[in-house]
Amino acid sequence: MGEQPDISNAEWQVMNAVWEGQPVTAGELIKVLGPANGWSAATVRTFLHRLVKKGALEYEQDGNRYLYSAAISKQRSVKQASRSFLSSVFGGETGSLVTHFVKAGKLTSEEIDELRRLLQEKESK
Length: 125
Description:
The protein is mainly alpha-helical and 125 residues long. It has helices spanning 9-21, 26-37, 41-54, 74-90, 94-104, 109-124, and strands at residues 24-25, 57-62, 65-70. It has a 3-stranded antiparallel β-sheet. The two termini are 30 Å apart.
């Protein structure tokens, strides 16, 4: 798989819905995403068209409807978006990103234990 397409925040919502239930029809996505976001059916269809054009989605015709599936992996897309966010917002400094989110967020004791474990694992390498 080549270059991952740039995906807007709204398009991420569409992609997450597709990744969760693929293959999905436009009608199913409209029912889920429309009310949750205040989007019309035309808006959801526009996002689907854009994502197909970008190569993020593919579709197959099933009678008079289209079944949409992801053409890109969620894991790779999240990885690229994370790298882009890290670079643009934190100048590529992972420590600054982690520090910011640890200070700004609420963490359960389980999440804190997991962070400790990950840091100890990272330190021992």
